Amino acid sequence: MTVKAQFLASYKQLLRSLIKSNRRSKISQINEDNKKQIALLTYRKINLVRQQASEVDSKKRLTHLQQTHEITKLIENLKANDPVKLKSLYFYDSPSRLRHTVLHDFPSDQASIDKRLQHLRDISGFIKNQMEYEQLVERYNPGLKMDQEEKVKRTAARVGLRVPDC
Amino acid sequence: MLSSMLRGSSVALRTVSARSLARPVGVSAMMSPIRLYSSSLNKDEISTRIIDVVKAFDKTTASAQVTNETHFAKDLGLDSLDTVELLVAIEEEFDIEIPDKVADEIKSVGEAVKYIETNPEAN
Fold this sequence. Notes:
The structure holds 2 protein chains of 2 kinds. Chain A is mainly α. Helix content of chain A is 76%, strand content 0%. Chain A has one domain (3-158). Chain A is built from 5 helices and no strands. The model of chain A has no long low-confidence stretch (mean pLDDT 87). Chain B is an all-alpha fold. Residues 1-6 and 8-29 of chain B have low confidence and may be disordered. Chain B has helices at residues 2-22, 24-31, 43-56, 80-94, 100-105, 109-118. Chain B starts with a helix and ends in a 5-residue tail after the last helix. In chain B, helix 1 (2-22) crosses helix 2 and helix 3 (43-56) packs across helix 6 (109-118). Chain B has a domain at 43-118: Orthogonal Bundle (Non-ribosomal Peptide Synthetase Peptidyl Carrier Protein, Chain A), CATH 1.10.1200. At the A-B interface, helix 1 of A face helix 3, helix 4 and helix 5 of B. Chain B: InterPro entries: ACP, ACP-like_sf, PP-bd_ACP, Ppantetheine_attach_site.
């Protein structure tokens, strides 16, 4: 195998693990962001509806109504936005920087080339295993990522109680 | 006794066959189980998904016209590292890992479609 083929193989391995772990964290991040945005917009919508109810002027009422419609549309858009479908997450953010780091004063003699390639493979192995480790920790400790509300609900369910809906 | 046993078994066989005649569908399905894959990808679907991925790649020069015949290096102007990035993205899209030897042969959208069509794990 030539040096080029070897290098491409290690680069691919590195890229694969980087993208896998990046994608996972980004999807959860985007989901969180969406949730926050939806909460904010819902709050604004409720305020608008209240204002509209107390408004006497019919013109102002109309503008309020329009704004409410816009916000509803935004919320629906956010809800329909599924980051799992995003194709851009299949690519690494800054491949040029990664490339620069990897190719930066690339050695010329065989021994150091082998060392460099081994290093790349080690990095990709580390990233991959770290991701798997995190997944396992999460799976075995379901309480880690649970929010307070869910925790309270489950704790209550454990002793045969149910949290009221609102 | 042996003959009576034989007769009995033949009777049993006959009832079974009569039943199988009465309900041929169920029996034949039990006899030759059909292998059901969780997903069935057809060629058009694969190619549209791959083209979407290629379009999402910000390094593609002529992103407007990506077809099955599009060659990665010639038409899109990708170098070998870019091609690796694109192939990894395609791998992620279909949740597979393309072995290095096969990946070296994939140089156009059509070839990628062909490979994924033959891969039973792709979904």
